[in-house]
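Q: I'm writing up a methods section and want to include an example of the input and output format. Could you take the sequence below and give the corresponding predicted structure tokens, formatted cleanly so I can copy it straight into the document?
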Amino acid sequence: MQIATWNVNSINARMHAVIKWLSDKNPDVVCLQEIKTIDEAFPRLEIEALGYNIETHGQKSYNGVAILSKYPIKEVKVKLPGDESDDQSRYIEALITGPKKLFRVASIYLPNGNPVFNENGKFSEKYEYKLNWMRRLKEYSAILLSDELPTILAGDYNVIPENKDVYDYKNWIGDAAFRKETHFYWRSLLNLGFTEAFKQMDDRPGQYTFWDYQGGSWQNNHGIRIDHLLLSAQAADTIIKLEIDKNVRDGVKPSDHVPVIGTFDL
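A: Here is the clean output for your methods example:
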């Protein structure tokens, strides 16, 4: 069972790359972020033709998340609990009936949070939103863990976990993805009982999932690792392999992110 996460940076702009990757890799479940389209405009027919069931939580021009699955999808939930006023499409979860067992998967697009400070030297609304979103995710994730289903929280977290996960950490000191407050909430998620798939299966330095379009970042391998699979204990026990599919970044009009693929015995 291959379960992947990929920030496509606009599904309609990257359809050539998405269709090729789905056809080549044939993953069982894919969590997409930044689809940047409303549900009605999502290109369902082309993806369904490859054998996928599709659930989306879209938003015009911004954000948006989706789950693609070769297996039946049920009990879909959108919108992270904890703030009824939050109208940004950043969370979708579902139960999937795999060949061996039922499991839960969520596609997450965590806020960027920059700039960190406003003109008064206080935390900006964007950074406060990021921290509050992470707090809500922690509180809700604790509830998810209570039913002991294998659970995979997949997505673009906009969190660089450690110094070795960025080409030059000194350049990122003060960025919302690398601040102590962000790391606090990241660790609080892990302390609930989640395992980061990459850390369990690989953990080498210099393994990146994002390269900016500017300044020759891809050509010079000036990347960061911000796309993650967080696994409940029941999911962590079943993981067999973890791959960062870097070749996708070298394609025609690529996303600035690449897929992260976990192989599970589910």
